[in-house]
Amino acid sequence: MQFDIRRFDIYRKIPKDLTQPTNTGAAISLACISFISTLLLIELYYFITPEVASELFVDIPESGHADRIPVHIDITVLNIGCQYVGIDIQDDLGRHEVGFIDNTLKTPENNGAGCRINASFKINRVPGNFHISTHSASSQPTDGDMKHVIHELTFGDTIKGFRQIPNRKAFHPLRRFNNTNRPSHASHDYLLKIVPTIYEDLGSVRRYPYQFTFFYRVSIRSIPIVFSASLITRIIQFLKSKLLLPVRYFAQYNKLSL
């Protein structure tokens, strides 16, 4: 008699003609398939999503901007004309520029009674300040009202197109900041803590933006101005599959005045 290995099969199948499908069995089968598919999709999502991690740096991290920090500001001074207002920059290295005009566009607003200033410049990584004031004007306006609206204030590279950066508002917390309800003839100081950031996406494209927080205060001066800031550092790196958030302190930028 011929030997048949199928005799050892302990998981013997029942012929199909002896089985009968039911509505309950179909519902359970569909529920199991849906549940397993959902689990697979969730696991796939977490597998392809980069992991966020934090690290600390002791040395000065790569900034991509040498010793200077790029600044972009877009602001409207409501009650002082463009012929009076300008940007002044100074720091502890001896830099002192009054009426900075490079990469600066002034647009009259409010029928010429106000001025919108859009400017890009660089500041050193040392204590100093920049401010918008009437210091560069040959004559002073009769009404030194520095009420203003900040449309944009950013440091470093733009983060446009980088959707995976967490907490994007930290890179432009003063965007659309309306300061028109403050007293006239006052100076407006913004104390900023600035955090350098390195962002590298999965395509090895790097950007060097800066995060910052601010503290606002009002004071009375003979010639009103608007900004003040304090510089701290931090880094974000997005290395292939990880977004690193190292933190480091290296300098104090005492005043960014406007």
From TrEMBL:
Originating species: Adineta steineri
A single GO cellular-component term on record: Golgi membrane
GO biological process terms held by the UniProt record: endoplasmic reticulum to Golgi vesicle-mediated transport; retrograde vesicle-mediated transport, Golgi to endoplasmic reticulum
TM spans (from-to): 21-48
Subcellular location(s) of the protein: Endoplasmic reticulum-Golgi intermediate compartment membrane
PANTHER family in UniProt: ENDOPLASMIC RETICULUM-GOLGI INTERMEDIATE COMPARTMENT PROTEIN, ENDOPLASMIC RETICULUM-GOLGI INTERMEDIATE COMPARTMENT PROTEIN 1
Keywords, alphabetical: Membrane, Transmembrane, Transmembrane helix
PROSITE patterns in UniProt: PROKAR_LIPOPROTEIN (PS51257)
All residue ranges annotated as the Endoplasmic reticulum vesicle transporter N-terminal domain in the record: 5-97
Name of protein: Uncharacterized protein
Family (UniProt): Belongs to the ERGIC family.
Main location: endoplasmic reticulum
Pfam short name (any one): COPIIcoated_ERV
Membrane topology listed for this record: Multi-pass membrane protein
Keyword Transmembrane part of the UniProt annotation: yes
